Amino acid sequence: MVCPVPDFDVRVSHDSGAAAALWARLPVDHPYQRLDWASDWLATEGTDSACIVSVVDRRNHRPWLLLPLVRHRVAGLRTLSWVGGHLTDYPVPLVGPDCPESVLSEGFPTIWKAIRRALPTADLLLAPRQLPTVAGRPNPLVQLRHTMSAVSAHHAHPGTDWDAFYRTHCSGRTRRRHNQKLRQMARVGPVRFSVVTHPTQARAVLPTFFDMTDIPEVQSHPASYFDTTRTTMCSAWVGS
Q1: Tens digits of per-residue pLDDT, 47-69?
Q2: CB neighbour class for 111 (10 Å; exposed up to 12, middle 13-18, buried from 19)
Q3: Measured over all CA atoms, what is the biggest interatomic distance in the chain, rounded to whole angstroms?
Q4: CATH number at residue 144
């Protein structure tokens, strides 16, 4: 039995500006769901591939869902993925406060069929790292038939003895390489880890990244110090 849902419309916009009015009315749960960041990314990568899907209440036009997608080819397959590509930490939909619970649960298959009809023909939807909830509401995409990625399908259990686990799972060559990196980091100076939770903090931290690139050890071994993807993400967030 199909769960009935209120009357709705599905709209597909091919640039973020056309969807801006609806987008601005939706709560943002993650930095890479922000309209300004997505617009900048599309302006850089090209807006012709955008397929920004919005689901709205037909009666009052209030937004229920928004999926900022782009279309491209991967290994010959017509593929849909999230705006931001691999930079997007969690490619989850934006869920509006007026979205009925039925739309996020039993009624989502009806919504999804309508979305598929509205979108260009595609062979694959790439949506990794799905979270069970979005802004405190159920994430409807977890209901879709999916294939578990290799990264998510394997788990490690270090137990209570980290040193024993490390010796068992890392070869002597790997441990020597790790020690070499630690010695390189020691030449730079004391290292501490900070959790940046506010753009003001990020702006204060970012110059340190740029200063580090002037240090010879970092120039000769950049991959040993920074994950360039995360550095780019931090820069994009601060710039927004």
Answers
A1: 668 889 999 999 998 999 999 99
A2: buried
A3: 66
A4: 3.40.630
